[in-house]
Amino acid sequence: MLSILNSLIPIFLVIGLGFAMRRSGFPGEGIWLPLDQLNYYVLFPALLTYTLAVADLENFDVWPMAWALAAGLLTMVAILVLWQRVRPIAGPEYSSVFQGAVRWNSFVALASIASLYGKEGVALAAVSFAVLVPLANILSVTVLTRHAMGISPKPATVVKLLAKNPLILACVLGIFLNATGIGLPGPLAVTAKVLGDASLTLGLIAVGGGLRIGHILEAKRIVLVTSALKLLVMPAMMMGYCMLFGVTGLPRLVVLICGAVPGATSSYVLARQLGGHIELMASLITGGTILAMLTMPLMLWIFG
Fold this sequence. Notes:
This protein is mainly α. It contains 12 helices and no strands. Helix 2 packs across helix 5 and helix 3 (62-86) runs parallel beside helix 10 (249-260).
């Protein structure tokens, strides 16, 4: 347990630094939006492309791991659909709850995996990116279009929105480069790695800067329920699917981390673009990130 805490505490300290920086007004309010845009459109896509393009997965059978990740996420989707049918809530609120329970914070996941499991863990994290980033984005866009915007999501509309998503484009490029054996030529690999390394640190600081404590108390019940689904139910389900698909060892631990991390801060951007409930989305991101400081070590201790 102590080794888990030693690996995770620095990550949440960096998030705390971002929170303290923004609340203190340093280095100025005008930096945060450009920082988010830089991370979303340039730095993190570079990290995704690099991680996927250079990942060496020859020593692992990654398909059972991929199935466990996808099955866990899709089971959560089924739970949320059932929730909306049994105890329906307003469309924009439901779309935010959906994102809060389904999407995952890639910055926290990769930083945790790198800290705990090193290069081999990061290589396996590439599998998680390839599975969860496109799937979570496709589902989120579909739900937001239908429940927040109130229109039937036509396939062409969804494809058009996804085609503009830099994270999905980066995943597609990275997978293509790896699968074809092209990889990244020396200078391009170094450039992408430099950008990706910057993304991880700045991304965690941006996560902290985006926390909004004041909104949590206004929706504390729905924040607690959604956080329980994301932080406790999701990793438990993924561990169940790991048993079903025979995922063991390091791949199983990487799946556990991916299931246990809080929701993605980019959910707020998508909610704002597609008519989601942005105040609730901010509360869910903040509450989930704070609670993850307790639940992530707990999940790793129980299932690790």
